[in-house]
């Protein structure tokens, strides 16, 4: 079933069409990324609207849509109202997570239809990945693995976190990235105790833990991985914390399979950290799903009591963060399967001392 057909399947007698405004939903429906535009999806037809900058590519590459250009002589809202009339739409489902109040009011004022929020129903399809989506995400993970292997020999005492972040970004693009999933986190020494610290001017020193959290976009799909390495040497305390995080991650991965709740996966990893005496220093959830966006549902945290679906792609990223001293996080991405999970990330996880 094509993705546009999935969207059509949630239409009812009460909601006859969907208004797609976010890049992610438009990309998912069209199975192709056009930077700007709008789409109306209905059982009687689907139309995609974009401007002169993208019209040629859209008409060539978007399947399942009638692609139309909007401009001064063919205003967007006029064309949308024509679709609403042609397709017999009285009510449009919209993406409440992405529209501002001002944007929604503008649509409500100018389009001849009622509006109802439909984000949850639209996002549900993205929980489970198709094989072609998994192939793209596998490639994205391969790029992150290659970049990690390439950047590690470049880490030298005296370079700043910002300089290392720049080297990492270069390696990501050099190995095939089409974009970054997010701004890389590169923190060292005491800064590594901040899970989402920002690369700064601190110079890397011997005996530092260096945490690198990064990902790329490949054909619209994200990757995500974290590795913590030591420069020169690691103290016994550093080794103990690192190995505790690794055991916690392996316990979470072992618990991950279809039907197991995100809460139970989180608990399996958290239990290891708590029994080692570091429970107070693991404040975030064990993992999140990803795909077109770097953070998607379903999550592997204490708040998700629903079973994970087959072919969800989830991160596995427990951590321990000792304020003012250091932090450790190890992250892979896994594909949930019936009887376990497949690890997409291939970089080694034993403590690496550079």
Q: Layout of helices and strands, plus pairs?
A:
Blueprint: H1 3-8, E1 17-20, H2 23-30, E2 38-42, E3 45-50, H3 55-61, E4 66-69, H4 76-86, E5 91-94, H5 101-110, E6 114-117, H6 119-124, H7 131-151, H8 161-174, E7 179-180, E8 185-188, E9 209-214, E10 216-218, E11 221-222, E12 225-230, H9 236-255, H10 262-275, E13 287-289, E14 296-300, E15 313-316, E16 319-322, E17 326-329, E18 332-337, E19 340-343
Helix pairs in contact: 7-8, 9-10
Structure overview:
The protein has about 350 residues and is of the alpha+beta class. The chain folds into two domains: about 5-125, Creatine Amidinohydrolase, Chain A, domain 1; about 130-345, Creatinase/methionine aminopeptidase superfamily (Creatine Amidinohydrolase, Alpha-Beta Complex), CATH 3.90.230.10. The protein has ten helices and 19 strands. The protein has helices at about 5-10, 25-30, 55-60, 75-85, 100-110, 120-125, 130-150, 160-175, 235-255, 260-275; strands spanning about 15-20, 40, 45-50, 65-70, 90-95, 115, 180, 185-190, 210-215, 215-220, 220, 225-230, 285-290, 295-300, 315, 320, 325-330, 330-335, 340-345. The strands form six sheets. Strands 4-3-2-1-5-6 form a six-stranded mixed β-sheet, with helices on both faces. Helix 7 packs across helix 8 (about 160-175) and helix 9 packs antiparallel against helix 10. The protein starts with a helix and ends in an 11-residue tail after the last strand. About 45% of the residues are buried.
Q: What is the topology, as strand order, of the major beta sheet? A: 4-3-2-1-5-6
Helical residue percent band: 25-40%
Q: What percentage of the residues does DSSP assign to strands (E)? A: 15-25%
- Strand pairing plus helix content: what structural class? alpha+beta
CATH level 3 topology of the largest domain: Creatine Amidinohydrolase
Strand/helix succession: HEHEEHEHEHEHHHEEEEEEHHEEEEEEE
Query: How widely separated are the two ends?
Result: 48 Å
Outline type:
elongated
């Amino acid at each position: 079933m094509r993705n546009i057909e999935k969207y059509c399947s949630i239409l009812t007698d009460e909601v006859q069409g969907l208004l797609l405004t976010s890049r992610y939903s438009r990309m998912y429906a069209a199975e192709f990324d056009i930077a700007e535009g709008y789409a109306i999806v209905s059982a009687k037809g689907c139309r995609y609207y974009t401007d002169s900058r993208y019209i040629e590519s859209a008409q060539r590459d978007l399947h399942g849509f009638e692609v139309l250009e909007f401009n001064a002589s063919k205003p967007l809202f006029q064309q949308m109202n024509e679709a609403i009339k042609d397709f017999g739409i009285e009510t449009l489902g919209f993406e409440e997570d992405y529209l501002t109040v001002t944007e929604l009011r503008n649509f409500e004022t100018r389009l001849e239809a009622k509006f109802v929020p439909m984000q949850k129903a639209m996002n549900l399809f993205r929980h489970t990945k198709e094989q072609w989506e998994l192939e793209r995400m596998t490639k994205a993970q391969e790029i992150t693995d290659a970049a990690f292997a390439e950047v590690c020999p470049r880490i030298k005492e005296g370079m700043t976190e910002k300089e290392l972040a720049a080297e990492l970004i270069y390696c990501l693009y050099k190995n095939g990235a089409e974009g970054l999933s997010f701004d890389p986190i590169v923190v060292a020494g005491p800064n590594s105790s901040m899970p989402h610290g920002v690369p700064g001017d601190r110079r890397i020193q011997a005996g530092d833990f260096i945490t690198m959290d990064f990902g790329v976009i490949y054909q619209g799909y994200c990757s995500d991985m974290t590795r913590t390495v030591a420069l020169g040497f690691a103290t016994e305390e550093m080794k103990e914390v690192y190995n505790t995080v690794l055991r916690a991650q392996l316990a979470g991965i072992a618990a991950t399979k279809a039907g197991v709740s995100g809460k139970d996966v989180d608990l399996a990893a958290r239990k290891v950290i708590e029994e080692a005496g570091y429970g107070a220093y693991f404040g975030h959830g064990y993992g999140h799903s990803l795909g077109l966006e770097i953070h998607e549902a379903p999550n592997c945290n204490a708040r998700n009591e629903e079973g994970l679906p087959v072919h969800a792609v989830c991160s596995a990223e427990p951590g321990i963060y000792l304020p003012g001293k250091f932090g450790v996080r190890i992250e892979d991405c896994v594909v949930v399967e019936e009887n376990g999970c497949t690890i997409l990330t291939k970089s080694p996880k034993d403590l690496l001392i550079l």
